[in-house]
Amino acid sequence: MLDPKLLEILACPACRGPVVPSPDHQWLFCSSCALKYRVQDDIPIMLIEEAEKWDPSDPASTSQTEAGERD
Fold it and tell me: Global pTM?
């Protein structure tokens, strides 16, 4: 699980907006630019070239089932 203090200071590298963790803390989501950043071994991978697009209007896109993509 990501440290709450870390979550307070993290920002999307593309737009500098806030990021929100998925329920399982495997992704960080930026709703401003519709990107998601992988969290690996409790370390956020905050590289724009590693980010993936996601649909913020689709509630299923933030579910734990989608986090299974990284395996």
Answer: 0.79
DSSP, collapsed to helix, strand or coil, labels residue 49 as: helix
Contacts (Cβ under 8 Å, ≥6 apart) of 41: none
Q: Between 64 and 65, whose confidence is greater?
A: 64
Cα(30)–Cα(51) distance, integer angstroms: 10
Whether 66 maps to a domain, the answer reads no
Residue 23 lies in a domain: yes
| Structure-token pair, residue 54 | 């996601």
pLDDT over 90 at 68, yes or no: no
The whole domain housing 6 covers 1-32
